[in-house]
Design brief:
heterodimer; A: 157 residues; mainly alpha; 7 helices; elongated; B: 673 residues; alpha+beta; six-stranded antiparallel beta sheet; two-stranded antiparallel sheet; 27 helices; 12 strands
């Protein structure tokens, strides 16, 4: 009994894996109902698909970054489509709007740039944090040595 | 000692610069005394040796005899006294002093030899027997054997004729100055320092010898060595050996035979003396003689016909004795001359017992000592150069303390349990011997231990509470009471070197023997201390124990010495502030001479040190953690490129997702509105 309870507890604690395929499956009926919108978004989010193809990292951070800002850019197409009636008849007009493509691709580009620029910035910040932490460690060590004598610095082994 | 005046009981001024040699006692010098209450009264003081127990100091509580013809001290105690020091200087120490009135009569004999004029029997009865019997009676009532009855210690009660009186007997150990002639066989064999207090019966024996010497007008053993006198007494009995060749009246034979009986229980008592004085006659008791061998054995230049005689000769010739006991002649003599079939068993038992107790290097010496005890149970304990009665062990040990050679021998005898063996061989034990048996049981617990406060020093102070503390620090102060111990150390410290530790083996042993409660815990702490600092703290605890039992807060120099002693222990406080606090507290407690407080402050298991130790352990752990963190940072724990890249990418993803969520949400709201 105790073993069963332990297994259950572990199962409850384990993080549930994100399943994109399942999400797509769930969104499929909605996509079918709003087919013009689906077609526009599919066209506008092509850069995200490219990003997904080149992204081999475990967290798929590139995909997420590019997709997020690509989606923001794609909102222009979405707005135009909704504004023109959300029908198959306006689909060509909307997709021929170069501003829309500019918005969608700029969003994707910004995402890509953000993905490339953040790690060096974080590295610089980590260096600064490391230096600060090292200074605190040395200060605490000096204080201990001052209070307890050099013998406190000697290892027991 | 502001005015260098030596004062006893606030009344008797002793003049250290006015010697009175004619009142000297053997071993004790006499000095002039002025009685402040009765100026002009003729008095003198005997200064007892500082290294031995002063007999009178143990008798201060006894009331003086009413009017007995014996020189009884008028006062006694320990006084300040100038002592010679290194470099010809004189320093003030303390010595036992005994003040006497100058006898009204003159000394009967100027030297130790008797007057050439023989005394008649009536003269003896009136002038010697009657007064000395009265003196012995008084002393017996007080439970004090005189043990110094000899011609040289006799005074006329007035002027230079008439009845005599006994001189003093309190300045030196009992029987110290007695010639072998005046001592019973067992006491005569013993070293003068190791004779023990003895019995009043020993006084009666000495009285018998005195009567004989005064009656014949000469020393009956003239020309004989001490060994020959003792041998003659053993072989023929004291009466025959001393008076056998003299022409004596029946009455004189009667009294001398009674008083010179070698068997204590058969010896005449005061009742017999009184009856003899009244003219009553007694059936003469047969002398006690040891079993005679069928053939003699030659040893030490003479033939011996009995075991005690040979044992006595063996005791005086140790190297030859070691060869003798290995010879077949000795074995054969023991086996065949006494018709004793069990000798082999006895010898085997003695050899086994000798091997079982004591240091391994002296098995044969112990075997010989046990053999001598078996051959002559009445003899003192004889071991190499030592011949001592069990009741005289204390004074003997005190005497040989500075002689490493003899000291080793006494300690070997104690470690070999020879006193216990001797006691077990006795058919009857007197009160003093029974007390020694109890003391030996206590000594047995300590004699083999090498630590401070144990061993020979502990044995010394356990044996006799009157033995002064012989610590080199305070040996000049004649400390016999615990109450005086700490003040004496305090007074001695200025004359000692810087950094003197105020506790040594003697001080610890003295405390161990004198303190009412056991100090084994304190002594074990000293012995088991891991380092010098802890050892000094343990010593401080011993001082604190003494101070708690005998409160005294006026010990500034001792407190300073303790502070100096604790410098090492102060370093055991690891935390700088705790150390500074401890130092401050130490000086405060030292100023108050509070050794218990100091001991608590420095106690390794006390709250202060314990807290410091716990803090130190935590600090070490914290330092180790900091070092690990330092190493982690040095190895790029925070700046690892892989890590920063991952964090950066994740940050970009999160930020963009956040922006997208916000944008979608905002547009949804806009679209709905």
């Amino acid at each position: 009994m105790a073993k069963d309870a332990s297994v259950k507890a572990n199962a409850a604690q384990a993080p549930k894996a994100f399943k994109p395929a399942l999400l797509l499956l769930l969104l499929l009926p909605a996509a079918a109902l709003m087919l013009p919108m689906t077609i526009v978004l599919a066209a506008a989010l092509v850069p995200s698909l490219v990003a997904r193809l080149v992204d081999a990292s475990p967290g798929r951070h590139l995909t997420l970054t590019v997709f997020s800002l690509n989606l923001v850019g794609a909102l222009y197409f979405v707005h135009e489509l909704l504004a023109m009636g959300n029908g198959f008849d306006v689909l060509a007009i909307v997709l021929r709007d170069s501003i829309g493509w500019l918005a969608a691709l700029s969003g994707a580009g910004c995402g890509w740039l953000l993905f490339l620029a953040t790690p060096p910035i974080i590295a610089k910040m980590a260096e600064a944090q490391s230096a600060l932490r090292m200074r605190r460690v040395h200060r605490d060590q000096a204080q201990l040595a001052e209070e307890w004598g050099q013998v406190v610095t000697q290892s027991d082994r | 000692m502001a005015d260098d005046q030596i004062l006893l009981e606030g009344r008797y001024e002793i003049a250290a610069d006015r010697r009175l040699p004619k009142f000297d006692s053997p071993g004790a010098e006499a000095f002039a005394v002025n009685d402040r209450n009765e100026p002009g009264r003729l008095m003198f003081a005997l200064m007892a040796p500082a290294h031995l127990p002063c007999r009178y100091l143990g008798l201060l509580a006894k009331r003086p005899p009413s009017d007995a013809p014996v020189m009884w001290p008028r006062a006694g105690g320990i006084v300040d006294w100038p002592m010679p020091a290194a470099g010809g200087r004189t320093v003030w120490g303390r010595r036992p002093a005994i003040v006497f009135d100058v006898a009204k009569g003159e000394r009967v004999f100027a030297g130790e030899a008797a007057s050439p004029q023989p005394m008649t029997e009536p003269q003896l009865a009136r002038q010697v027997v009657a007064p000395l019997a009265a003196a012995i009676r008084e002393l017996t009532a007080l439970g004090i054997p005189h043990r110094a009855i000899r011609p040289g210690n006799l005074f006329y009660q007035s002027s230079n004729q008439g009845p005599v009186m006994l001189g003093e007997c309190f300045s030196m150990p009992p029987g110290y100055a007695q010639p072998a002639l005046y001592e019973t066989i067992e006491n005569a064999i013993a070293d003068p320092y190791g004779r023990g207090p003895g019995l009043n019966a020993d006084d009666l024996y000495a009285l018998g010898v005195l009567i004989l010497q005064l009656h014949v007008g000469r020393d009956p053993t003239e020309g004989m060595t001490e060994e020959e006198i003792v041998s003659a007494k053993i072989s023929a009995g004291s009466f025959a050996a001393l008076a056998g060749r003299e022409k004596l009246s029946t009455s004189m034979v009667e009294i001398l035979r009674g008083l010179l009986n070698d068997k204590t229980v058969d010896r005449w008592t005061l009742r017999h003396l009184d009856a003899w004085g009244a003219g009553q006659h007694f059936t003469p008791t047969m002398p006690y003689l040891p079993q005679r061998a069928s053939r003699p054995i030659r040893f030490g230049g003479s033939d011996h016909m009995n075991k005690p005689s040979l044992a006595h000769a063996m005791a005086r010739r140790w190297p030859e004795t070691l060869k003798l006991v290995d010879s077949s002649d000795f074995d054969n003599w023991l086996k065949r001359s006494f018709n004793d079939d069990k000798v082999d068993d006895v010898i085997a038992r003695l050899a086994n017992a000798a091997a079982a107790a004591g240091p391994a290097s002296a098995v044969k010496d112990r075997y010989v000592a046990r053999l001598i005890i078996w051959m002559s149970a009445q003899s003192p304990i004889c071991y190499r150069d030592i011949r001592v009665n069990v009741t005289g062990l204390a004074t003997m040990l005190a005497h040989v303390l500075d002689d490493q050679h003899l000291m080793t021998q006494v300690v070997e005898a104690l470690r070999g349990r020879l006193p216990q063996v001797w006691i077990n061989e006795q058919p009857v034990l007197n009160a003093d011997q029974l007390q020694v048996r109890r003391i030996m049981e206590e000594i047995e617990k300590h004699i083999e231990k090498p630590g401070i406060g144990q061993g020979a020093e502990r044995a010394l102070y356990e044996l006799d509470p009157l033995i002064p503390c012989r610590s080199p620090m305070i040996a000049d102060f004649h400390v016999i009471n615990m109450r005086d111990l700490l003040p004496a150390i305090d007074a001695a410290l200025p004359g000692l070197g810087e950094g003197t530790i105020p506790v040594d083996r003697h001080v610890a042993a003295f405390v161990g023997a004198h303190l009412r409660r056991s100090i084994d815990r304190e002594l074990n702490a000293i012995a088991q201390a891991g380092d010098e600092a802890d050892r000094r703290v343990a010593m401080l605890r011993l001082l604190a124990t003494v101070q708690q039992s005998y409160p005294n807060r006026k010990l500034p120099r001792l407190a300073d010495a303790v502070v100096a002693m604790l410098a090492l222990a102060l370093g055991r406080f690891r935390h700088a502030r705790a150390r500074a606090d401890a130092e401050k507290r130490m000086h405060k407690l030292a100023k108050e001479c509070d050794f218990a407080g100091l001991a608590l402050l420095f106690d390794p298991n006390g709250p202060y040190r314990r807290s410091d130790d716990l803090g130190f352990t935590a600090a070490k752990r914290a330092y180790a953690a900091l070092r690990r963190e330092e190493q982690w940072l040095e190895k790029g724990g925070l700046t690892d490129p892989e890590r920063t890249r991952l964090i950066g990418q994740r940050a970009a993803a999160v930020a963009s997702a956040f922006v997208a969520s916000a944008a979608v949400a905002a547009y949804s709201v806009y679209a709905l509105l």
